[in-house]
Amino acid sequence: MSMLKVIEVLAESDKSWEDAAQNAIDTAGKSVRNIKSIYIKNHEAQVEGGKIKKYRINAKISFVLD
Q1: Which CATH number is associated with domain 4-64?
Q2: pLDDT digits (tens, 9 = 90+) for 3-55
Q3: CA angle centred on 16, ends 11 and 20, rounded to 5°
Q4: What residue segments make up the domains of the chain, in order of their start?
């Protein structure tokens, strides 16, 4: 039987929320293995001069324990 662990992360991007999610996976993947899913809990954006400058997400990443 497999056991999963879930971590909560914050990530951001200058391009999109999807890119922020990929940044979260890429960064988490440097210290954990066997990532199986990402659940986006919250979307947020930093706005300057009427334009979005940063896309931010709060996400839960699950991975299989060895």
Answers
A1: 3.30.1660.10
A2: 999 999 999 999 999 999 999 999 999 999 999 999 999 999 999 999 999 99
A3: 20
A4: 4-64
Structure tokens at 17: 């929320």
What own/partner pairs with CB < 8 Å and gap ≥ 24 does 43-49 have?
43/17
User: For residue 14, what are the contacts with CB-CB under 8 A and spacing of at least 6?
Assistant: 53, 54, 55
Q: What residues are paired with 48 via a beta bridge?
A: 51
Tokens standing for residue 53? 């400058």
Judge contact between 13 and 31, C-beta under 8 A: no
Helix (H), strand (E) at residue 30? none
